[in-house]
Amino acid sequence: MMIPRRQRRQLGLAIHSATLSQVNIAELLNARAASFSVKSSS
């Protein structure tokens, strides 16, 4: 099955942006957990 080059690039961009958003969400959750643990310890 051959995928046109333009469509393949769009697929790559979509996957790339999806992984980027997942990383951003993970970093936000980590930062929120860190600030929460700091508040609870103090």
Structure description:
- With 42 residues, the protein is mainly alpha-helical.
- The protein contains 1 helix and no strands.
- The N and C termini lie far apart (59 Å).
- The mean pLDDT is 86.
Summarize the helices and strands and which ones pair or pack.
Blueprint: H1 5-41
- Total DSSP helices: 1
Mean model confidence by pLDDT: 86
Structural class: mainly alpha
Q: What low-confidence regions span 5 or more consecutive residues with pLDDT below 50?
A: none
Q: Could you tell me the radius of gyration in angstroms?
A: 18 Å
Largest sheet composition: none
End-to-end distance = 59 Å
User: Helix amount, in percent?
Assistant: over 70%
**Fraction in beta strands:** under 5%
Characteristics:
42 residues; mainly alpha; 88% helix
Structure, briefly:
This protein is mainly α and 42 residues long. The chain is 88% helix and 0% strand.
